[in-house]
Specification:
The structure holds two protein chains of two kinds. By secondary structure, chain A is mainly β. Helices cover 0% and strands 56% of the residues of chain A. Chain A has no helices and eleven strands. In chain A, the strands form two sheets. In chain A, strands 2, 4, 5, 9, 10 and 11 form a six-stranded mixed sheet that branches. In chain A, strands 1-3-8-7-6 form a five-stranded antiparallel sheet, with no helix packed on it. In chain A, a hairpin with a 4-residue loop joins strand 7 and strand 8. Chain A is globular, with a radius of gyration of 13 Å. By secondary structure, chain B is mostly beta strands. In chain B, 0% of the residues lie in helices and 54% in strands. Chain B contains no helices and eleven strands. In chain B, strands 2, 4, 5, 6, 9, 10 and 11 form a seven-stranded mixed sheet that branches. In chain B, strands 1-3-8-7 form a four-stranded antiparallel sheet, with no helix packed on it. The relative contact order of chain B is 0.34. Classes of the chains: A mainly beta, B mainly beta. The interface between A and B is medium-sized, with 22 and 23 residues.
């Protein structure tokens, strides 16, 4: 069974702090790496879908990088705001199969 | 209007009962998925279907079955519900032809409680 690891499991930061999370995945048969944002009482929504080694993607204050050779991706949040509080899921996709999700990193931002 | 809908949104049932959770989508996507979420365990894949004639087991398919009645509909059944199937269930879709590399679009979820 393929394993996708996310760290840390949870963290609490103050408003204005910058933070980052890690997703580790198998480096074989890579097709895509996804990041999803999941707010309480809502459904997960895609942040980024990354496919190329060295890819960097950005959406507002959130950005992500990808290293397919060593099997990791980082998600960065610059200047965290309370509305960034959510669980951030990464998911690994090999060609021809369904996504495998990590357990998520739960971020809490205090004002 | 929601693109991916799930019915029911909440269900309480008793051990041994047969339960069906339904998922419909208006996105025109060919691929559909069922996940369950338990606290601290993220999303775990139960079954997935890449088209109407394709059904595949996921990580935790035991105790579940599915039916892909049409491209737009994917149902999940618990033949004889047990308490450890109490969870939040999500349906999702993706589009093979979009170039989005299986980006998932989730329904609102069904909260199932088995007493």
């Amino acid at each position: 069974i393929l394993n996708v690891e996310q760290s840390p499991q949870s963290l609490h930061v103050q408003e204005g702090d910058s933070t980052n999370f890690t997703c580790s995945f198998p480096s074989s048969n890579f097709y895509a790496l996804h990041w999803y944002r999941w707010e309480t009482a809502k459904s997960p929504e895609a942040l980024f879908v990354m496919t190329l080694n060295g890819d960097e993607k950005k959406k507002g204050r959130i950005s992500a990088t990808l290293n397919t050779k060593e099997g990791y991706s980082y998600l960065y949040i610059k200047g965290s705001q309370p509305e960034d509080s959510a669980t951030y899921l990464c998911a690994f996709n090999q060609a021809g199969t369904a996504l495998i999700f990590g357990k998520g990193t739960t971020l809490s931002v205090s004002s | 209007d929601a693109d991916v809908t799930q019915t029911p949104r909440n269900r309480i049932t008793k051990t041994g009962k047969r339960i069906m959770l339904e998922c419909s989508q208006t996105k025109g996507h060919d691929r559909m998925y069922w996940y369950r979420q338990d606290p601290g365990l993220g999303l775990r894949l139960i079954y997935y279907s890449f088209d109407v004639k394709d059904i595949n087991k996921g990580e935790i398919s035991d105790g579940y079955s599915v039916s892909r009645q049409a491209q737009a509909k994917f149902s999940l059944s618990l033949e004889s519900a047990i308490p450890n199937q109490t969870a939040l269930y999500f349906c999702a879709t993706s589009d093979r032809t979009s170039g989005n590399h299986n980006e998932q679009f989730f329904g609102p979820g069904t909260r199932l409680t088995v007493l």
